[in-house]
Write a structure and sequence with these properties.
329 residues, mainly alpha, 0% strand, globular
Length: 329
Amino acid sequence: MISRVADHCFWFGRYVERAEATARMLGASVSLALDGELPSAHVWRPVIVVSGEQEAFRARIAGGDGEAAAWGDGEVVQRFMVWDEDNGVSLARSIAGMRWNARSIREVLSLEAWEAVNELHLWMRSDGANATYLHHRDGYYQHVRRATQLTLGLLRSTMLHDEPLDFVWLGVLLERVNQTARILDVHHHAFTQRPRGGAGDDVVETALWLSLLRALSGGEAYLKRSAGKISSEGVARFLVSEPAFPRSIAYCVHSAYERLCDVRPPDIADLPGGESVARLRALDEWVAARRNAPLAGDAVHELLTHVVDEVHAICGTLGRELFGAPAPA
């Protein structure tokens, strides 16, 4: 398999997962804004911070006297995260990147997967998408989620389980680790620093943690594991260490390591990719070793910062060792 095809497979997987995660996070934020009884800035500012685009938002959207209002304006934040072509992680850019990479590897994708990607790309540019966005916002995010989830399902059920799919799924898993770590870090900090003591405080706090779990499609799974008990440390431990939840950091890092080992066996020293395998194995072992460590306060932030930094470094190493010049994120 040539490096160009492997690179496009990897980035195709990342863009599919990025679009799905962004739509899920925006949908959960819409619900939280309606039900959470929070100041709007507490709902919408984390969306920008999680995306890593706070500097661009501050410079282009929230500059001057309107800064405070813009951070808390759900419509402004949503337009930035959905339609802004200059925002590298907007839905418009992610879906365009997904389709461009899919077209570049059309010969290795199944027809059904290609059709799902192309249909979503065309829908995003249609009058119907604009009308749904304006009048049925939750339905808009559900459409994007279902289309990307359909793509992920078709990839696994209609493609050969060989190297192209391994590289696609490696991109999906590493992007998922990054998304889970960023969302948990920002929201955990905001929720635990929230002033307490008001009437109905426990109800609001429960709603906040459930919103975070919904943003990661983990509400039902968490409640089954915790017997219905919701706490900040319990949610953090579930999203970091639960080995059976497919969006937890532990599950995704371990699965990514297994995928990379399928492509590049770790016991063959003269193959390229040795540093990438070693770094991903080290991260897998590091996360596993912290399964029972306390997760409260700064410990959560330090753990998640290390995970995000290591995933970024691993993606860079993969680009250098296996893909040549990596595609832009």
